[in-house]
């Protein structure tokens, strides 16, 4: 009886852990700087909010509770933080469970003094790699029509503009561009 129970517990725990999106912390060198890239955890949120403030003129488009809710979806999302000498200097996130094998880049930001060194692209590349492992067929994102800088980063990674969503950002009454990166080569689709 005890053996049966143990087997059942192991099975349940194993299948649960199988579903969590795995990420092993790593150190990556970008332009001679070593960044520690880890999965974001709740204690990181105050520093993530500080990054938001630093790039969005003191505003935080996502509040503490929104970050917390996103980080808790460990089976369907992956949020990464990059640290340089113990300081959190960037983050990026992806949601894997969209219809039709689609992943969705939900957020990305790099503190101004670490921008333009390739860190944003590095975080996005790690998420793209992870989406491939999750067997997603494409990755989409929305970006403000006026955010040329971010659009250029996405374009350099292979994202293409798919459509324009009128007044998607309701507060600012600004359009969004939807961009998509296909992960499955056209030939492989049959
Ligand atoms: C968008 C954002 C995350 C990009 O982060 P980043 O770390 O500056 O991005 P990268 O450094 O990878 O790329 C930016 C520029 O650096 C260049 N670059 C890339 N790798 C580089 C490297 N190894 N060395 C030097 N420059 C590099 C890129 O070509 C790009 O230059 P260009 O557009 O002038 O040609 C950052 O600008 C940001 O936080 N913006 C505010 C928040 C935001 O808008 N988020 C997106 C919401 S949709």
TrEMBL record:
This is Ribosomal-protein-alanine acetyltransferase. GO terms for molecular function: N-acetyltransferase activity. Residues 35-184 form the N-acetyltransferase domain. Keywords: Acyltransferase, Transferase. InterPro entries: AcTrfase_RimI/Ard1 (IPR006464), Acyl_CoA_acyltransferase (IPR016181), Bact_Acetyltransf (IPR050832), GNAT_dom (IPR000182). It comes from the Bacteria. It holds the Pfam family Acetyltransf_1.
